[in-house]
Write a structure and sequence with these properties.
- By secondary structure, the chain is mainly α.
- It has one domain (6-222).
- It has eleven helices and two strands, in the order H-H-H-H-H-H-E-E-H-H-H-H-H.
- The chain has a two-stranded antiparallel ribbon with strand order 1-2.
- The relative contact order is 0.13.
Length: 247
Amino acid sequence: MRAPSLKLSIAVLLSLGLLGCATNGDRHDPLEPLNRGIYKFNDTIDKAVIKPVATGYKEVMPGPARTAVGNFFSNLDDVLVLLNDLLQFKLDQAASDFSRLTWNTTAGIGGLIDIGSSFDLPKHNEDFGQTLGYWGVESGPYLVLPFFGPSTFRDAVGRAVDGYYDPLWRHKPVDERNTAIAVETVDTRSRLLDSEKVLEEAALDRYIFLRDAYLQHRRALVYDGKPPPEDDDDDDAPTASSTPAPR
């Protein structure tokens, strides 16, 4: 399975956009009926397969080993973070992330040990969806992607571009790549098991809670944690009735 094609992603988004023009409801979520259907599909797959495997993984895998696995995939992600630093002209952050990537890849044994954090080189979060937002591209409607979950039209395009350059997705042979992707998925899901309990207690409607939390979180990332006051005309701003993102 190859990383999603950018042209294919754009074509799908345009088709969904035409469908969304005929729907009513939250202006940030004109595709809500479709999104809820995909959300239920993802939730079914998660409960039937991914969550049980992640639970077993967490119970069987020693803590230090899980930390090393997480560090390894975080180090691969730093390649994309660095590229998006440069695309956003965040040169100081790019220098920090380059140093972090270098230290963790070499002294950190391929990223298994997070040496960078001990050298005051923190982990940053940048992706091409944020880069598009940095250059003024609006988020567009909320969109739930099969298997991948919450997104927007902008972030879906960003995900496709990041996927094309992601060292993990580009790795060959294919069977090794797919195994690594499966391990990363399970490891990431295992880290969400505890926070899921908070979601169960806090949300009357999990779909709305996750949607509003995602939109606010992405808005904060685009503006580096300092988003401007929300405006009714701001395509990136969730509605005033949105559920606050968890702190």
